[in-house]
Amino acid sequence: MSLTDASQHQDDQAYKIRHSAEHILTQAMQRLYGPDKFYMAMGPATDDGFYFDFESLNDFKISEEDFTRIEAEMAKIVKENLPITQKIISIDEAKKLFADNPYKIEWLDSITDRGEKISVYWTADQFVDLCAGPHVDFTKQVTAFKLLSIAGAYWHGDEKNKMLTRIYGVAFDSKDKLKEYLKNLEEAKKRDHRKLGKELGLFTFSELIGSGLPLYTPKGAFIRLAVNNYVESTQLAQGYTQVWTPQIAKAKLFQISGHYDKYKDSMFRVVSNYSDEEFFLKPMNCPQHTQIYAAQPHSYRDLPLRYTDFAMLYRDEKPGELNGLARVRSFSQDDCHVFCREDQVDEEVDRALIMTKEIMDTFGLKYKYRLSTRDPNQPEKFLGDPKMWDKVEAWAVKIMKRNKIEYFDGPGEAAFYAPKMDLIATDALNREWQLSTVQIDYVMPERFDLEYISQDGTKKRPVMLHRAIIGSPERFLMILLEHFAGAFPVWLSPLQAKIIPITDSQHEYAQQVADTLTKEGIRVEVDQRSEKMQSKIRDAQMQKIPYMLIIGAREVEQHCLAVRQRDEQDLGAMPVDEFIKQIKEQINNKSLNLIK
Prior knowledge:
BirA Bifunctional Protein, domain 2, 3 domains
């Protein structure tokens, strides 16, 4: 991080605490093991903590069993209330100070190449590291911290470089916040979508197919399709129309769009046996949609044109970054691209924002917006006229204010062709995920020479709006799995009810009830196994099935059901017709709750 980047965190006390906790960790390790046991590599603050990368020397090894000892030494440093101070030094001083550390020398060469000042931070006169900061003033300000785990990490994240050891930790400004975080962390382990996906039989991976390429079982495919169909039906009602595009395209398409130069290293190259042309699996839909628009002439009367697309996309993610459904190599997006006149932009963006709110409310997700803009210090990363960017960024602010949307700024988070209005959703564990986005794009229409005939007969460029609501259905399934802890709302549950006959003599009635529910569109199964009733109930609860319909001799005689919910609430006896009425009401309303 440069001094300029560090200045963005000067008022962020949480960042300072986490960054300082990493320095205290490194100092504690030097005290305990000696500086000749490892090379310090890097150690930044993160959104909720910090990590420290180092290279072990002389067969030095460390494990999570050592954390208690290290944390005790860190606590001593905190108690000593040592001052943490910054010093700007010359390159000669720095190279002398870190002469024995090849990683710091590499950092110094990089800093020198950028023409930046060299900053170090001293903890009293006991410990020093090359660092842009910022930090707290005294170690005693780091009041609550915890070391979490150890992992391997390549230097600079490049698998061609040496594998380092990484220690992860968290730090907060109070012990109560740390306690709450650790509690949520334990809950997150229970809700891990990889664990739940396996237990509920929703998806799997195969080494024969490849890492990052998920396979969906009938249950998982149902949920994925149900979410997609809900989004598509909502879009259809708003005048959007679905298109379908090939999963490969010539390199030239991505060269024109600008994606080739930006993303070539993460695109899968496709080789043809009959052509020397370069092809790629498509990593996004935008360029293909421009070609549907360009296939025929358009008048101002034709606009807006709203294209939606759920076609599969592919990105060559690094193996170490793959993570269940959170980061995959094959995925789709609820993509939409609107081609419209400039005077139609406000109405189209408002339409998208209203639709997004409706869908987020359906899933019970709280959210906020980030206005993702250019990084003023790296203008070379963004295509198009700076004046156009000024116009669109100011326009986005007006749209947010008009829609009474609170937002925060995200400098440098814009797409290379347009700023973004990004929705950041918060799940049940207060974790944040970027889902929806709206972008006002003048760059793609210009690069692909898109036109329409205006009312005065002249040719004009359309504006291209990029819009997604849930983003990737694969990633959204992961979020929903963890948000609901696998207990999906009734309308999304692959199996909505399990009928459990107590003995074999109730099988005939159980099947009659199942047939009745099925005709009403309710997804149901009969558990005819020769297991005890409590065992069947426990299995159904483990599968997060919303309702267990118990049938014994009394239920057969009275033509009713004993209804039990997955949360163990017993609703007692209920006529079949009444149960159908109540569950259909839940399904039709997409209710988040079970029967009350």
